[in-house]
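We store chain and fold; example below:
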Amino acid sequence: MTVLSDHHLAQIAAQSGIPADRINPASIDLSLGHEMQLATWTRPYLDAADDGYVTPDHTVQQLRDRARLKHGGHHPELVRTVAAKAADRLRSLTRPTLTTHDLRDYPDGFWLVPGEGALLHTEHVLHVPEDKSGLLLLKSSRGREFWQHAFSGWFDPGFKGQGVLEVYAPVIPINIKHQQLVAQLVLFDTHPVSVPYGAPGRISHYQNQMGARGSAHR
C-alpha cells in the first residue's frame, strides 16, 4: 500500500472540515472532541470470609490454591465453591465501568491517573474514500508525555464517523483537554473492494459513530 502525501490529504481533510494547517507531509493531525468515557475497575471481595481482593491478574487456579491454604485441602466442596465464586467475580471484571464526562467542563484538562483508561473521540467526522484505508496513530508529542494508545485505530474503505481512541496512563498521570491535538491519521491507497465499509449487506458496527462510543461486541 502507498502512503498518501499532502497533495491527496488536502482534499480528504477538506471534506472532513479539518483545517489546512493540520496537514503534514504524510498525515493529518486530529484534535479531541468533547466527550470522554472514563473507564474504572471495581475490586470486589471474594466472600465475607476472604481477606483478599480479586484482581484481573488472578487466575482461577491461583484462587483455588489460595482457598486450599485458607480453608484446608480436606474440604474439596468448599474449595470448589470458593473457586466458582472467584470465577464469577473475575468474569464481572472483564469489562470496566464507563462514566461519561464532558471535557469542556475541565478548562485546565482532566487528569487521567495510572490504572484508569478513557475512550476519547476525534473532533471532526472522518471520511475515508472507498479506495483508501486509514490508520490512527498517537502523536509523538503525546507519546513523549507517556500517553498510551491501544493499537486499534484501523479504518476500512468507506468508513465515515468520528474516530475513537482508547488511551490510558501506564506510568504517570496524563492531562486530557478538549480540542487538544492527540493523533495523526495516515491514509493508504487501497485496491478496489467489493463491498465498502458501511455499505448495505456489510456488517459495519461503527459506521456514522459519534462521540466516545464503547465496544459494539458483548
Observations:
- The mean pLDDT is 83.
